[in-house]
User: Fold GIY-YIG domain-containing protein from Methylobrevis albus.
Amino acid sequence: MVSIVINWTDEFDFDGLKKDRYSTERGVYQIIERGFGRQKLIYIGLVKGVTRSFYMRMNEHRKDWINGYYYYRYYVKFGIISRLDRRSVTDELIEDAESVLIFEHQPPQNTSKIRICRLAADLSIVNENRGPFLTDRQLQYATL
Assistant:
């Protein structure tokens, strides 16, 4: 079993998002919607590979769909992944972490990975500073 920790950052307002120390990292992220006295987790995504960053991906979201929503405010939390065995974090591991989080929390804007969670290896996730939207601090999933 691969054991990882996801250290979640504080929330960043989408409108004020700038390049900062997190924005060049890879990992997973959650997008939170607030408006009309309510708030909810609406999307979980990933950034993998060396050619993309959190900052680049957030700009894609802004162009693709967030700019069209005027009644809500959007926030993002970045999840930096580390392995407990201190080995390197692979793209495949980032993909597995995203799959578990989407399957477990079912964000409404995610359209894939909702019905089935396929993993490359058994995975244990500890979510640090997860915020109110990720319900479990620790998740464990096995391959089929």
Notes: The chain has a mean pLDDT of 85. Residues 2-141 form one domain. Strands lie at 2-8, 12-13, 27-35, 38-47, 73-83, 123-128, 138-141.
